[in-house]
Design a protein that fits this description.
By secondary structure, the chain is α/β, with parallel strands linked by helices. 41% of the residues lie in helices and 20% in strands. It is built from 10 helices and 10 strands. The strands form 2 sheets. The protein has a 5-stranded mixed β-sheet with strand order 3-2-1-4-5, with helices on both faces. It has a 5-stranded mixed β-sheet with strand order 8-7-6-9-10, sandwiched between helices. The longest helix is centred in the C-terminal third of the chain and has 30 residues. The radius of gyration is 20 Å and the shape is globular. The structure holds 5'-O-[(R)-(carboxyoxy)(hydroxy)phosphoryl]adenosine and zinc ion. Zinc ion binds next to α3. 5'-O-[(R)-(carboxyoxy)(hydroxy)phosphoryl]adenosine binds next to α4 and α5.
């Protein structure tokens, strides 16, 4: 039984968590997430404000996570921290703090790639969400379609050519006059939308695409966003049309995501689909994915909302895997705004 303290500060959530178990059976002992609401008034994350807020909260958040788990620092086997990718100033707060804590307590420190963390998140909610599986990671900053043959063995099938899926939700939210972040608001108002009023074309999705072409798995949302902008500009009564436009946008985006995931699942003969990232909170997406997967006899696993969005439990879970393999970092561990996922082909 291994016990890992995880720390996450890559964007606007300060989070710490204690996770215990093995890579095939990890359990969350505690999870503290402090979201920085201040960014809402700016309509997006302000990096300098994020760094300063992490500095203020990192110590009490970590102490609280240890206390909630009934643990001391001494009883921890290793400290895992997000070191890439993200806002470099924000990442530096977590990395510096984790290194200091580890050095002081004589514990190993493990740098974790934020997106690898998202891959592990769902397995904390669903024990069966283990490799091999097809993974769709959809957040505000990333959209990745991966084949996961085993933990640490990832094949990139496709990604977005422009906006991330969550970014598209947020930009469309702005166009429709909804609060930031727009994703949850679009899902809410789209429930009252008529799907036949605005039918946007499905981006990068044609029947004649072939698995050898990058277009087969890749995604693109900027054209869809432009189509929404034109629909908004052409609307005579946006209050009346907003739910219909939101519905048309969400239907097009979800249809595309489902089709690409099913292509990935079929190409590698997988029977499990694992979703992750903030957009995986979208119940309409999860239901559509389950409906689509039925035809392949595949099971869909989606994380609970607290593990879908940024959190330190997923970082601890990925750290547990690296620790079990005997991997760790030395004091030269640094923060990087961009970095490839380890084990990615
Ligand atoms: O993973 P996350 O918390 O942060 C990043 O690493 O980006 O994802 C945040 C994104 C935002 O773009 C937000 O609009 C989106 O997740 N999101 C949703 C929903 N809940 C959150 N998008 C669509 N539907 C939702 N219900
Ligand atoms: Zn994230």
């Amino acid at each position: 039984m291994t016990r890992i303290l995880g720390i996450e500060t890559s964007c606007d959530e300060t989070s710490a968590s204690v996770v215990e178990g093995t890579p095939e059976g990890a359990k969350v002992q505690s999870l503290v997430i402090l979201s920085q609401d201040v960014h809402a008034i700016f309509g997006g994350v302000v990096p300098e404000i994020a760094s300063r807020a992490h500095l203020t909260s990192i110590v009490p958040v970590t102490r609280r996570a240890l206390a909630d788990a009934g643990s001391t620092l001494d009883a921890i086997d290793a400290i895992a921290v997000t070191h890439a990718p993200g806002l470099v100033g924000a990442l530096l707060v977590g990395v510096s703090y984790a290194k200091g804590l580890a050095a002081g307590a004589g514990k190993p420190v493990i740098g974790v790639h934020h997106m690898e963390g998202h891959l592990f998140a769902t397995s904390l909610d669903h024990a069966e969400a283990q490799p091999p599986f097809t993974a769709l990671l959809v957040s505000g900053g990333h959209t990745l379609l991966l084949d996961v043959a085993a933990w640490g063995n990832y094949t990139l099938l496709g990604g977005t050519r422009d906006d991330a899926a969550g970014e598209a939700f947020d930009k469309v939210g702005k166009l429709l006059g909804l609060p930031y972040p727009g994703g949850p608001h679009i899902e809410r108002i789209a429930r009252d939308g008529d799907p036949s009023r605005f039918r946007f074309s499905r981006p990068m999705l044609r029947r004649d695409q072939h698995p050898d072409e990058p277009e087969y798995f890749d995604l693109s949302f900027s054209g869809l966003k432009t189509a929404v902008r034109l629909a908004v500009a052409g609307s005579e009564d946006l209050t009346r049309d907003a739910p219909h436009i939101a519905r048309g946008f969400q239907d097009a985006l979800i249809d595309t995501l489902v089709a690409k995931v099913l292509r990935g699942c079929r190409a590698h003969a997988r029977t499990r689909i694992v979703l992750g990232g903030g957009v995986a909170c979208n119940r309409t997406l999860v239901a559509a994915m389950q409906e689509g997967a039925r035809s392949l006899g595949a099971a869909v696993f989606a994380p609970s909302s607290r593990l879908a969005t940024d959190n330190a439990a997923m970082i601890a879970a990925a750290g547990l895997f690296h620790h079990a393999r005997g991997h760790g970092d030395d004091w030269s561990l640094n923060a990087w705004p961009q970095a490839p996922i380890p084990g990615l082909r």
